[in-house]
Amino acid sequence: MVILDGKETAKKLKEELNKKLSCYYEGGNKKCKLKILMVGNNPASEVYVRNKSKACEAVGIEDELIRLDENISQSKLEEKVLSLANDESVHGILIQLPLPKHLDEDAVTELVPPEKDVDGFTTKSLGLLAVGKDGFLSCTPGGIVYMLKNYGIPLAGKHAVVIGRSKIVGKPMALALLNENCTVTACHSKTENLKEITRTADILIAAVGRPLFVTADMVKDGAVVVDVGINRTDDGLKGDVDFDAVADKCSYITPVPGGVGPMTVAYLMNNTVTAYERSLKN
After folding, report:
1. Same structural domain for residues 97 and 152?
2. Domain around 107
3. Cα dihedral 112→115→120→121 (10° resolution)
4. Fewer Cβ atoms within 10 Å of its own Cβ: the N or the C terminal residue of the chain?
5. Residue 282: pLDDT above 80?
């Protein structure tokens, strides 16, 4: 059994991106810019934003955190997003979620143009992914695919089972694996005979948001298991997979923490650099 080390893989990806940007900057090109919009001061969001800013610094992306009052109106927030959408010096726009309850998250995120949607959250980005065109894959699925490839894990022809159907992870993960020529089964809370399905998976992606949900009897011997979950429990952070029970059955498995999480941030950097590169060609 091999541990899929998200920290080391994320470091490798960020180093690759830093080399790319260094070459562009040495050639006299403008800086790659990411704007992060945060409304209010949600403590968890503060941590996530700091991690993203540190990653930007490591890669060479010029980032700016735009802090907005917690009581901002929907119209004022949308106005700010549109101003960034129309700013040609901005290559990526990230709206830190969740927003305060009085704001419509979907309406705000949909204002981000697909060429700047480095989070890959908009309907247009998901649609482009569905038809195999150059949209942005959301960061958690993108990071997972990069990590699997980095470890030389074959994807084409393999049966991948995704547990979860959120628009941020489950659905784009299934589409991304389809685009890598996997045979994909998407499961969720209404799936019947779930264990029978997961036991057929060569690659099992757990993104259900329930601690220790995936048990040993749900995993095929030799499977690759990727745990997207990060659940706060009385016993500390736990994934969606019962790591101790499942690990010995796997060929590869991600830990929690230190698996998918670092890859999500690193792939945000990847999307931002891609957005920058595309802007240089226009």
Report:
1. no
2. 28-113
3. 20
4. C
5. no
DSSP per residue, 79-136: HHHHHHHT-TT--EEEEPSPPPTTS-HHHHHTTS-GGG-TT--SHHHHHHHHTT-S-P
Task: Show which residues are catalytic.
Answer: 52, 96, 119
Render pLDDT for 220-242 as a digit per residue (tens, 0 to 9): 999 999 999 999 888 888 999 99
Beta bridge partners of 63: 34
Instruction: Give the list of residues 6+ apart from residue 88 with CB closer than 8 angstroms, or none.
Output: 279
The one-character DSSP state at 32 is: P
Task: Output the six-digit token pair for 111.
Answer: 């204002």
Side chain identity, residue 107: A
Identity of the amino acid at 266: A
Same domain, residue pair 147 and 252? yes
Domain count across the chain: 2
What average pLDDT score do residues 85-112 get? Answer: 96
Q: Tell whether 61 and 99 lie within a shared domain.
A: yes
> At CA 230, angle to CA 37 and CA 170, rounded to 5?
75
Name the one residue in this structure whose structure tokens are 């470890």.
Answer: 151
